[in-house]
């Protein structure tokens, strides 16, 4: 057996003899198992609930009686964001975003009923998921098990003995690294059980899953290098422990909390009230359907009359009110898109800033990598919102077209007792409307989004390894 | 006193301890500055409501005035409500980053409006905010551990313990003095920046005292935990590891575990089901005889029952009536949903008695009025305001009175400060 393996075996034997370490390790394994299973069950529950609500909403939509198409525009459509299988590993922002949306004409509603507003204050302490355990808790366990690997030997003078026995510094450091590596693999194992459960599900993508596995492997490896590095530099075990806990507190607890405050101060978001008022203002400028002398709508009316070669809207072969609805929807939707894009871009800039701060905190880097690959980051939510808006626009315009083509103008403006009946069109029309089908992103898209985080981690790993190899040379020199 | 100043001199010589106290002061300062800045942003957003609203409602009034139709006025007028931050909100932002503090409502169905959210970046909300409560609950214990884990064991390892105990006055009073000084310094590191910020913000003295007392008790808990650990007579390094593990369990693991258990034990009927049900009830009105809706409406609101009967032409009073009937028909579900939320919240609070981290967070957000209770109180104020709005428009609709430009100014205005303990002017 070579020196490295001997050193590693010795270190592991010492850890096993340490009863506190074994208990802590066992507890962590248990915690990860509980986190994996509960997170998986939670994701399954949510996915089923949302699928059920979605089915109910679609059924209700299709079961509508004969109605005027514009009633259906306001009856609207409820959609629910489906939850990808990887959300069981890292639910990301799922609890913080609304997961259901009411889509109707001329209005853009917010996504509502996020878990964060339906849970107790405990939800702000973090969520027990495999991602949380691996990002925050596992490094601390590695610190507890590893702070003394070299500091202890230095402190007790055994390092010198080892060196005298002809073991090289490199072998010692590599041996200690391997011992902690074994621990890290064991720590990561229960989370991989969760991974296997996920992999069995439809829609689980191999590429993002491998990126996540590589990312967390790199993250834990980075911590091991940092631990051995600090342990090599510190003269005493206690100093090593204090320094490592401080590093952990800054990297895993403090930086992730401070970064958002900086980001929101640098790039403020426009709130919904201001956005709504601004949209209404812009709408009055481009075309005000309430103003009978509005130039935009006057021109629109003229263009419609010209196209059909008639002089009065009553003579049009189609229902002018339907056409007007389509034009109005086109204008409002254009504004919705513009303001939504501005808000999304501002939020993306905020997240970019947080990721830049992630250059000093590998925990931020691994979090963004993990969420991006799982499709549960802001970009994932944005994908849902944009598809929802596209669907909303398409649905409303289909209904407006039905009004234009299937309801006559004279019926639509009539007020006599039978008019209500004549304005309605058959309920079979509702069943012909397409249902909302969320298009999940491709595996390549998710994996690509995770690359910046992976690159940050890689840079960190290279940097820490370099420092460690420098420290290795001076090991025991004091 | 001389003994204490001697102790202080000793403390100042320990570089690590001094750095720790300075660092905690700096972090607390940063947290209260960040909190004050966030609250300033929220106040500015609230202050910007009035001019924007005046412009918006002015434009609606301009074209409504032509026909003076009260129904269109009610349909197209959005009325702002807002929830001003309490003076202490900077110290514990609580739910104010994920729940709206500005919400506009119309006199139509409230259940389709009241759950709407504001724009916020979920990735920024995910880790939680950097406020005073975070420094107190999460970080301060780590500083206690740093300063206290080797209080006894350090002396033992340096070979001074027996000598210290043999000295006159070297017993309990010595340890009390030494721990008291360290505890006092850490407490001051939290208290001073907080006090300055609290005075800037104008927090009531009694509330300030409550926060300071809470911070002291919480620190004391961790000091006592360190004291308990030291009785095991382990080495300093074993103490540090044990205490850090205790921190991890009490501050991170138990609360997250409890969250899973609480949400599982107390299922809350999804709010989405209320929204779905309300929509069905409201839209059904178009497919049933209008008189049926009016009968139900008048049964609950007899004061308008003498309004003239409907004709074949569309009348907005029927439209508003079916919206209200729709709201009323889901009242039971709304009540169940709300009590579910309250039950979850109460359970988490009760847990605060055994988990100091949760208890302190709960008390801080309660004092700052940024917790769920405050959110629900805001919703109650919105509901009360919405009732007034309905009555206001009904006064025109059911009496067929014209609604001119001047009438827009008569609409009820939202009163934000009904139940707030520390209101802003």
TL;DR?
With 478 residues, chain A is mostly helical.
Question: How would you characterize the overall build of this protein?
Answer:
- The complex is a heterodimer of chains A (478) and B (425).
- Chain A is mainly alpha-helical.
- Chain A has one domain (3-473).
- Helices cover 72% and strands 2% of the residues of chain A.
- Chain A has helices spanning 3-17, 19-62, 69-75, 130-146, 148-156, 158-164, 169-199, 206-233, 237-266, 272-286, 295-308, 320-357, 362-374, 378-406, 409-413, 419-423, 428-431, 443-473, and strands spanning 77-80, 100-104, 107-108.
- In chain A, strands 1-2-3 form a three-stranded antiparallel β-sheet.
- The longest helix of chain A is centred in the N-terminal third of the chain and has 44 residues, at 19-62.
- The radius of gyration of chain A is 30 Å and the shape is elongated.
- Chain B is elongated.
- A two-stranded antiparallel ribbon of chain B has the order 1-2.
- Chain B has helices spanning 2-13, 15-47, 49-67, 70-76, 122-125, 132-148, 153-157, 161-166, 172-201, 205-230, 236-265, 271-284, 290-300, 316-329, 331-351, 356-367, 372-397, 405-408; strands spanning 79-82, 102-105.
- In chain B, helix 2 (15-47) runs antiparallel to helix 6, helix 11 (236-265) runs antiparallel to helix 15 (331-351) and helix 12 runs antiparallel to helix 14.
- With 425 residues, chain B is mainly alpha-helical.
- Chain B starts with a helix and ends in a 17-residue tail after the last helix.
- The interface between A and B is large, with 103 and 98 residues.
């Amino acid at each position: 057996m070579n020196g490295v393996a001997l050193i590693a075996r010795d270190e592991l034997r010492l850890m096993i003899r340490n009863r506190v370490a074994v208990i802590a390790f066992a507890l962590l394994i248990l915690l990860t198992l509980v986190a994996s299973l509960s997170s998986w069950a939670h994701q399954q529950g949510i996915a089923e609930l949302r699928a059920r609500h979605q089915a109910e909403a679609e059924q209700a939509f299709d079961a509508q009686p004969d109605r005027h198409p514009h009633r259906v525009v306001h009856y609207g459509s409820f959609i629910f964001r489906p939850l990808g299988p990887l959300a069981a590993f890292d639910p990301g922002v799922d609890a913080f975003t609304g997961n259901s949306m009411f889509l109707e004409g001329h209005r853009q509603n917010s996504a509502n009923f996020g878990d964060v507003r339906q849970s107790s204050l405990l939800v702000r302490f973090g969520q027990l998921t495999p991602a949380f355990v691996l990002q925050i808790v596992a490094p601390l366990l590695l610190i507890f098990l590893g702070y003394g690997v070299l500091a202890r030997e230095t402190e007790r003078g055994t390092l010198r003995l080892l060196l005298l026995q002809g073991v090289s510094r490199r072998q010692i450091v590599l041996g200690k690294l391997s011992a902690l590596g074994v621990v890290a693999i064991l720590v990561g194992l229960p989370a991989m059980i969760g991974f296997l459960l996920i992999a069995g599900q439809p829609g689980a993508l191999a590429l993002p899953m491998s990126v996540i596995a590589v990312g967390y492997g790199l993250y834990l490896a980075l911590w091991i290098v940092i631990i051995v590095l600090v342990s090599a530099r510190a003269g005493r075990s206690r100093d090593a422990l204090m320094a490592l806990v401080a590093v952990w507190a800054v990297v895993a607890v403090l930086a992730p909390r401070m970064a958002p405050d900086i980001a929101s101060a640098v790039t403020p978001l426009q709130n919904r009230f201001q956005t709504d008022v601004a949209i209404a203002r812009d709408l009055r400028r481009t075309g005000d359907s309430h103003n009978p002398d509005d130039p935009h709508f006057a021109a629109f009316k003229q263009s419609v009359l010209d196209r059909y070669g008639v002089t009065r809207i009553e003579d049009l072969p189609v229902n002018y009110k339907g056409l007007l609805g389509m034009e109005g929807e086109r204008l409002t939707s254009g504004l919705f898109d513009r303001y939504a894009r501005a808000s999304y871009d501002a939020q993306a800039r905020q997240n970019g800033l947080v990721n830049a701060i992630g250059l000093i905190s590998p925990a931020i880097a691994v979090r963004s990598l993990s969420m991006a690959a799982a499709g549960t980051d802001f970009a994932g939510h944005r994908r849902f919102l944009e598809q929802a808006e596209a669907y909303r626009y398409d649905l409303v315009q289909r209904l407006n077209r039905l009004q234009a083509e299937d309801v006559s103008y004279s019926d639509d403006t009539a007020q006599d007792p039978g008019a209500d009946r004549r304005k309605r069109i058959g309920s079979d029309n509702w069943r012909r409307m397409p249902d909302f089908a969320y298009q999940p992103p491709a595996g390549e898209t998710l994996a690509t989004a995770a690359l910046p985080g992976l690159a940050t981690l890689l840079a960190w790993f290279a940097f820490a390894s370099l420092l460690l190899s420098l420290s290795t040379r001076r090991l025991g020199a004091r | 006193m001389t003994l204490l100043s001697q102790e202080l001199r000793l403390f100042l010589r320990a570089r690590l301890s001094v750095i720790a106290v300075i660092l905690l002061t700096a972090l607390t300062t940063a947290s209260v500055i960040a909190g004050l800045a966030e609250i300033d942003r929220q106040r500015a957003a609230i202050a910007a409501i009035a001019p924007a609203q005046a412009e918006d409602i002015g434009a609606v009034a301009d074209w409504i005035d032509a026909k003076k139709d009260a129904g269109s006025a009610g349909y197209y007028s959005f009325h702002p409500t807002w929830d001003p931050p309490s003076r202490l909100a900077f110290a514990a932002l609580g739910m104010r980053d994920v729940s709206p503090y500005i919400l506009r409502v119309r006199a139509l169905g409230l259940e389709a409006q009241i759950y709407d959210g504001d724009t916020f970046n979920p990735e920024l909300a995910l880790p939680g905010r950097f406020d005073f409560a975070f420094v107190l609950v999460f970080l301060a214990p780590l500083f206690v551990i740093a300063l206290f884990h080797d209080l006894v064991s350090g002396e033992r390892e340096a070979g001074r313990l027996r000598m210290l105990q043999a000295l006159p006055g070297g017993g309990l009073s010595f340890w009390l003095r030494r721990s008291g000084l360290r505890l006092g310094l850490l407490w001051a590191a939290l208290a001073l920046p907080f006090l300055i910020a609290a005075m800037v913000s104008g927090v009531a003295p009694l509330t300030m005292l409550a926060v300071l007392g809470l911070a002291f008790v919480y620190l004391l808990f961790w000091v006592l935990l360190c004291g308990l650990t030291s009785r095991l007579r382990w080495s300093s390094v074993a103490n540090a590891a044990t205490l850090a593990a205790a921190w991890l369990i009490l501050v991170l693991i138990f609360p997250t575990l409890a969250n899973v258990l609480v949400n599982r034990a107390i299922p809350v009927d999804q709010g989405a089901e209320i929204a779905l049900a309300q929509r069905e009830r409201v839209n059904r009105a178009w497919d049933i005889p209008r008189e049926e809706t009016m009968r139900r409406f008048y049964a609950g609101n007899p004061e308008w029952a003498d309004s003239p009967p409907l004709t074949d032409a569309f009348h907005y009073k029927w439209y508003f009536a079916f919206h209200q009937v729709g709201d009323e028909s889901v009242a039971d579900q709304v009540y169940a949903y709300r009590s579910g939320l309250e039950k979850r919240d109460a359970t988490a609070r009760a847990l605060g008695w055994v988990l100091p981290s949760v208890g302190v967070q709960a008390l801080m957000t309660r004092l700052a009025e940024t917790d769920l209770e405050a959110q629900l109180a805001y919703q109650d104020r919105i509901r009360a305001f919405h009732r007034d709005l309905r009555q206001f428009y009904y006064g025109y609709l059911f009496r067929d009175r014209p609604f001119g430009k001047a009438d827009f100014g008569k609409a009820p205005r939202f009163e934000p400060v009904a139940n707030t303990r520390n209101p802003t002017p």
